[in-house]
Amino acid sequence: MTRRGCLPVSDWPEPDRDAWDAAHRRGGLLEDDGLAAHWAPATSSLIAGGYGRFLSFLIESGDLHASEKPATRVTRPRVEAYVAHLRQRNQSSTVAGRVARRSE
């Protein structure tokens, strides 16, 4: 893990990296852009850090299954456990920011 426990995109499980790449892909003549294709680099970095922190939490808790798709991985019980984990270590404004970054 890197500073502050945010797993870098290069270390994310393959399904997550694939989804990230698809979201940032520019479309062509007959293909739409990915949902994040027009994000500013700072926005992309902020969102990657938030999601990377969530993945780090899953690793720490032994609940990261590398082959699981991101849409399946983000469940209510996992997010609730993540928020509880963050509340033990951070101010409420930091917790809110982390959850907002992960969910955008």
Largest sheet: none
What would you call the shape? globular
Report the radius of gyration as a whole number of Å: 14 Å
**Between the first and last Cα atoms, what is the distance in angstroms?**
22 Å
The poorly predicted ranges are none
Count up the helices: 5
- Elements, N to C (H/E): HHHHH
Q: What proportion of the residues is helical, as a percent range?
A: 55-70%
User: How many strands appear in the DSSP assignment?
Assistant: 0
Structural class: mainly alpha
- Oligomeric status: single chain
Strand content: under 5%
Number of discrete domains? 1
Mean pLDDT score: 85
Task: Please provide a written account of the structure.
With 104 residues, the protein is an all-alpha fold. The protein has one domain. Helix content is 59%, strand content 0%. Helix 2 packs across helix 5 (92-103) and helix 4 runs antiparallel to helix 5. The chain starts with 13 loop residues before the first helix and ends with a helix.
